[in-house]
Design brief:
Bound molecules: adenosine-5'-triphosphate, magnesium ion
Number of helices: 12
CATH superfamily of the largest domain: Bira Bifunctional Protein, Domain 2
CATH architecture of the largest domain: 2-Layer Sandwich
Shape: globular
Helix content: 25-40%
Strand content: 25-35%
Largest sheet: 9 strands, mixed
CATH topology of the largest domain: BirA Bifunctional Protein, domain 2
Number of domains: 2
CATH class of the largest domain: Alpha Beta
Structural class: alpha+beta
Amino acid sequence: MFFSNLLVPILKNNPSEAKIKSHKLMLRTGMIKQSSAGIYSWLPLGFKIMKKIENIVREEQNRINAQEILMPTIQSSDIWKESGRYEDYGEEMLRITDRQKREMLYGPTNEELVTDIFRNSIKSYKSLPQLLYHIQWKFRDELRPRFGIMRCREFYMKDAYSFDLNDDEGEYSYNKFFLSYLKLFKRLDLKAIPMAADTGPIGGNLSHEFIILAETGESKIYTDKNIFEVNHQNCEINKISLENLRKNFDKYYAVTDEKYNKIEFDKLVKKEDQLETKGIEVGHIFYFGDKYSKPMNASVDYDGKKVFVKMGSYGVGVSRLVGAIIEAKFDEKNENMIWPINVAPYECVIIPLISKSDKTNLEKSMKVFNKLKENKIDTIIDNTEENFSSKMKKFNLIGVPYQILLGKKTDDDMLEFKKVGEESVKLKIDEIIKIINSKKN
Ligand code: ATP
Ligand code: MG
């Protein structure tokens, strides 16, 4: 409840080792601390934001009836040998030998492990589809970890897997995740473009990357602006509705620089609709049929016949999203981070003017705090003795979306209430509660 009790090691200046703003700001506001190259501890402020993002991811997965499981971080090499990826995956895989000299690895992804769970649990086609997901740490020994938690070695990912009887049903599952991702990024107040993508080392034949716009993104993107007009709000979870939604997106040109071709771009997109910008990949979905089920013998019984199940996999970079939101929403002019209220570390901060001799504002803060708490508003009181304006600056930087200021002339009924980046207004506590709660979704 009190800022003075939190572990938030704020730095006076931007750290010089950081190149992009999310990395700078996350270090500066004590959200993360590097422990070794590409490996970070998450301190209370950063951890809280990540957990809020994780919960929204979870809600959106549950909404399409995906089931949550938890697979371990450490895997046996045996299943990777079965799929044929043990050698193929290369140096990004962190290999470990245990005391019995068994070859283990820190999972970079979980297709093999989840296929092993499936083949031991499901026998009949009547149990299909199966949509499974988990939210777990991954390790990839990236050649050049950089940009803080945006491209690190240990990172937090939601990965989901679908199992179906045939390609038609498999594509239906794929499209459910497609919609679920659109809803997720909308709730995070991000503009995400689903971009038909190459399938890369995971292989397969259908894939989309979800890219959000940000000047500092690693991928250059070329798209038709009209893609932002496609509306998914009324899409229902049935085959036809989902297929149409995908078609509505796929008809627009949207590619990263690997696939970009100027002649094609000019031919397909009117000059005034062309958008060339940069983006960050926050999600990636694949449909790859029986690529893993065949070598790993994951099948169901269908009319007395053995059928290899058709699979897809669906990733979201939960930890990367923390940085991606900063990159996409940072207010350059005022130097404020901007958190959508759903994931802000706190929804509201109470900033009382206090001095050694006069603590009345602190008592008042407690009253306001309790009232907000009763109404489920996640609040913090800055009880430090820093001066008023540096407290305000600090919380502007951290990006807590709403502030209640208790200064010299605060009366009991009308409180000074401020949205980050806007002028303050005088409001009754009940009105403040209404405003804050109306912004959540
Ligand atoms: P990239 O092209 O950025 O390396 P990828 O194609 O290897 O990503 P996937 O295997 O599809 O990534 O993983 C799913 C999601 O996990 C990505 O969309 C991204 O958000 C996140 N992710 C992947 N690698 C990292 C990393 N090194 N650090 C942080 N997040 C990552
Ligand atoms: Mg990668």
